[in-house]
Amino acid sequence: MLELKGLTKVFGKEKVAVNHLDLSIEQGEIFGFIGPNGAGKTTTLRMITGIIAPSEGDVTIGGKSIRTDAIEAKQQFTFVPDQSQIYDAIKGIDYLNFIADMYEVSSAERKDRIERYTKLFQIDDALFQTVNSYSHGMRQKLMICGALLPNPKLFILDEPHVGLDPHSNKILKDLMREHCANGGTVLFSSHVLEVVENLCDRVAIIHKGKLIACDTLDNVKRHSSATLEEIFLEMTKDE
Amino acid sequence: MNKLIALTRIQLKDFFSKYTQQMNIKNKWLGKLMILLPIVILLPLIQMIKVIYDSFLMIGKPELVITYIYVGGTLMGFFMAIPLIVSIFFYAKDLSLIATLPVKKDTIVFAKLATVYVYLMGMSALIFGPAVYFYAFGEGLMVMRLIMGLLAMLMLPVFPMIFATLLIMPFMGFVGGKSKRNLMIIIGNVLFIVVIIGFQMVVSRAAMEPSNLMSILAQEDGLMHMLGQSFPPSIWLTKMVRGSLINTLWFLLMNLVFVLLLKFSSNRLYSNALIKYNQQSTQTVKNGKANYSQRSKKTLLIKRHLGIIIHNPTFLLNTVMTMFIPVLLFVIYTATGIMDLETLQNPMLEPYALYIFIGIIVSPSIMGSLSATAITREGGAFWETRALPITARDNISARILTTIILNIVATGALAALTFWILPLNPLDIILALLVSLVAIVLLATLDLFINISRPFIHWTNPTAAVKNNMNIMISLASRILLGGAFYLVYLLIGDLSPQLIVGIYGGIMAGLYVISRQIMYGKFTQKFLEMEF
After folding, report:
1. Are strands A202-207 and A30-34 parallel, antiparallel or unpaired?
2. Residue B211 pLDDT > 70, yes or no?
3. Are the beta carbons of B386 and B528 closer than 8 angstroms?
4. What sequence ranges are listed for the domain ABC transporter (chain A) (predicted)?
5. What does A121-190 look like in DSSP terms, one character per residue?
6. Is A106's Cβ below 8 Å from some Cβ in B?
7. I want to staple B323 with a disulfide (CB 3.0 to 4.6 A). Which of A176, A179, B342, B364 is the partner?
8. Residues in chain A within 8 Å Cβ distance of B280
């Protein structure tokens, strides 16, 4: 579903944020992307989603390159960034309709899905308020609803659990599982190792721009009885 | 096409919803005042255009009012488009969202420019609308003139907007990777404007040479060609409103060519400018020497406010352009020879020299309105000063002092450039500087009343914060009212010497300042503390 080949990002002349990343995510997987602050997780996700261009390498989504077939590649995923960068002088419903227009969601489908997701995340009563009156968590929920609305093949989220209340976190985890059960794929970055441990089929650990582990949880933990947290801390420890 | 419409609609909705929210119509009286504000500013403008129309009508060329206003409107549109383009393309919050959407790059560029177009259209309608009205109705209703005039009005923003986009976006892409990119943006934008104004001035000046003027008046369309020679499409436009089909085609074709040019360069503009600029934001910065010395809270607050202006190119450009445009114009006018320094030293001007000098050096405070956005500029970071252990009084006074510092710099620059040109004695100069200082302090305080009443912190882009902001309109309207009051005072005491009149003005302003200071650090400090955001 998603393939990264030699993905590299260099800022300026010397700051290597992401260093020759090779990664492949299969359809139906829930894939966790973890690493310390500044490891290159967000930069990688921004390259995958076409927000910034890679210095080297390429990203293909469903066989389409984000560089050369950008529209076809983008049609297959939706993205929830770590910060709610969103039009905020419009109503919540206007935002959701805008996303539905962008991904060509039919009127009947958008009605059903908007009603379902906004009810689940308990923001259905706020849809006719302007976004700038929303709390941080409500904006996050609105963006998640928007990203689920087109029923994307690949659902990408950057730190989705930050700012969500426990109820919404549970809903999001259930929806991620449901999405994969229906043939979709989920890629998300997180600092909450417990969530990654309970939810993901495979994890990738990135440190200083390099991929230091990428496997199923069982394989990552195969030689020890340690928790993912202990393994993560050991792997990302600076000498 | 549907995606273009959806993207354009959301941009316009967000942009104009911000405007509606800025209107603050929850407050009944302020809401009513808002409606009257554009009229206060528009009335003198309509009067001026009427005078221009009457002048051209007298020589039997009423259509030249269209040429004249079109050239001015194009220049104005260009100036207004630059900060708006920089702001909505490079500093808007929606870039990360839009970049991930399955839409073509040219769709993004056109949808974003739709906001610029509507804004420029609204602004240019303020000056072009009355010109079209006088031209179409001045000698009884002429339907053809009205239709062509309206068509010209609709087309007016196209050229300056696209021209500015084609200039600014590659430039932003170029400076994006540089370490001093903010400074380069300001210098580059100012240079663009200096070149455009300079070119305009040189061409106009050449046309105004006595020998040229004679031949201009002798020719059938000489005057039209003179007005339009710095911008030939205005000649096609003038002939178009006269009813020439071929010139209508030329004019429409010119606009179409620019639209197509933009369409074909959109992909490059998007990839080489927008994406490149945004991805260069993480710079490798070498560690400097840390300064651990303790500093006063007030100094740090002023540094913070200066930093907010200096580190945001849109804020800096807006400050430079509004406060230093008189300095720029002065330099361009003298460098291109438009302003004859000997004329200013003419003894006939001597009784008015003091007024002219004060008018020039106070202009940055009049145009700047910096305090009217002193809170707004902080945007989402405003909460910081509310959470820090500082008094509301220090918080307020730091904002006023920041405005005063910037205005004193601009006033000082203008005073240094102009004091030796006008026939002034040292006492006149000292008096003018003192009165200007009082005016700076008074206006900096008065403007903050506006911002405390209308904080407007949640803005989409920096231009919305500092330019497309009703606070600025209120501030400018307050200048007009203050100017009107001073004119009334002048009518009462006009027989006195200029020095005495200026002294009385200074006294009035000092009195007003004492009163406004009392209110600011009393009732408005409480209001500042209770401000919701």
Report:
1. parallel
2. no
3. no
4. 2-233
5. TT-GGGTTSBGGGS-HHHHHHHHHHHHHTT--SEEEEESTTTT--HHHHHHHHHHHHHHHHTT-EEEEE-
6. no
7. B364
8. 11-12
